[in-house]
Amino acid sequence: MQTLKIGTRGSPLALAQAHETRARLMQAHGLPEQAFEVVPISTSGDRIQDRPLSEAGGKGLFTKEIEEALLDGRIDIAVHSSKDMPTVLPDGLELITFLPREDARDAFIGKKVKRIVDLPRGAVVGSSSLRRQALLRRMRPDFEVVIFRGNVQTRLRKLDEGVAEGTILAYAGLKRLGLEHVVTDLMPLEDFPPAPGQGAIGIEARIGDRDVERMLAAIHHVPTGQALTCERAFLAALDGSCRTPIAGHATVAGEKLSFDGLIISPDGTESHEVRLEGEAADAAEIGLDAARRVRARAGAKFFDGWA
Ligand SMILES: NCc1[nH]cc(CCC(=O)O)c1CC(=O)O
User: Fold this and answer.
1) What positions does the domain Porphobilinogen deaminase C-terminal occupy (predicted)?
2) What's the rounded Cα separation, in Å, for the pair 205 and 197?
3) Tens of pLDDT along 47-95?
């Protein structure tokens, strides 16, 4: 077979994820590194630095150019952070493979204090994610939450410069970058539920590309796939307004799946949670059912407030 072209964003995290995918494929198929080519692709999401991405057009910004390359045949597979993937993909493409999930929790990086609970009243905490901003406000209404973008290095520099007392990032991303030593605290799943898909590498391919399907089947992690099916069904059913922060996390043990979902107002004052358990084989139905329940509990007005 010719070289398999692995498309990815060019950020350090994206490249680390592409390299992990390549390593797993090499291992599973006994192939040398030269059997693969990692193709970095710049996306609009990487280029827009001046405003929150939720205002610039949301999640699709990180995937558009990569999906065009996949559809054009310039690459054969695309490696993504599942969390950044829209729930609706372009015709002809599917997310078919998930690698074993890393720790899905958010991590706190404190400058003067290690634990977020030890921050003084009114402390400034930086985050660019609507979910994290809302959860921070719910947890500590006294915090001043400021927008904080950029890669890990940029954020650490901002902490050094005194722009904020701390910031929150996905533990998984930090681990994959070999930066877990900067983490000073881990956020509990209950107070600070992760975004749907957090910590899971997802691989997108052309529907019906049999050679690629065969290659990828060997590295697919079934429990992660089931968890992601549930989380993405929850997200898809609620995603009408991308201005509503949504958290969702499923865990799979044997045949059983357990899901926790949450929607929260951006100011953190109103949140609605749901927990459902069921058969892992019913992952999509559980996610959809959870979305119906949490939507019913919140009422239609909840979504109107800030949409
Ligand atoms: N939105 C950016 C993004 N997309 C995926 C990750 C981390 C890795 C992951 O969740 O799999 C991050 C950075 C972060 O949230 O800290």
Assistant:
1) 228-293
2) 18
3) 776 666 666 666 678 899 999 999 999 999 999 999 999 999 999 999 9
Which residues have CB under 8 Å from 295's CB, separation 6+? Answer: 237, 238, 263, 303
* Beta bridge pairs of residue 106: 170
Least confident of 93-102, 216-225, 234-243: 234-243
Q: Which ligand 1 atom lies nearest to the CA of residue 199?
A: 11
Q: Is residue 73 part of a domain?
A: yes
Q: Are 32 and 179 in the same domain? A: no
Question: Same domain, yes or no, for 62 and 208?
Answer: yes
Is residue 84 annotated as part of the catalytic site, yes or no? yes
Residue 194: inside a domain: no
Contact by Cβ (8 Å): 306, 265: yes
Structural domain total, the chain: 3
Query: Out of 46, 50, 84, 209, which one is annotated catalytic?
Result: 84
> Phi/psi at 257 (nearest 5 deg)?
-125, 140
Residues 69 and 110 in one domain: no
With a 6 A CB cut-off, is 14 part of the ligand 1 pocket? no
> What mean pLDDT do residues 173-179 have?
96
Looking at the fold, whether 163 and 239 belong to one and the same domain comes out as no
User: CB-based burial of residue 131 (10 Å sphere; 0-12 exposed, 13-18 middle, 19+ buried)?
Assistant: buried
Residue whose CA lies nearest to ligand 1 atom number 5:
81
Q: Are residues 48 and 140 in the same domain?
A: no
Q: pTM score, two decimals?
A: 0.94
Q: Which of 83, 108, 132, 169 should be mutated for ligand 1, with most atoms under 8 A from CB? A: 83
Inter-residue contact 231 to 250 (CB < 8 Å): yes
For the record, the structure tokens of 266 come out as 């951006």
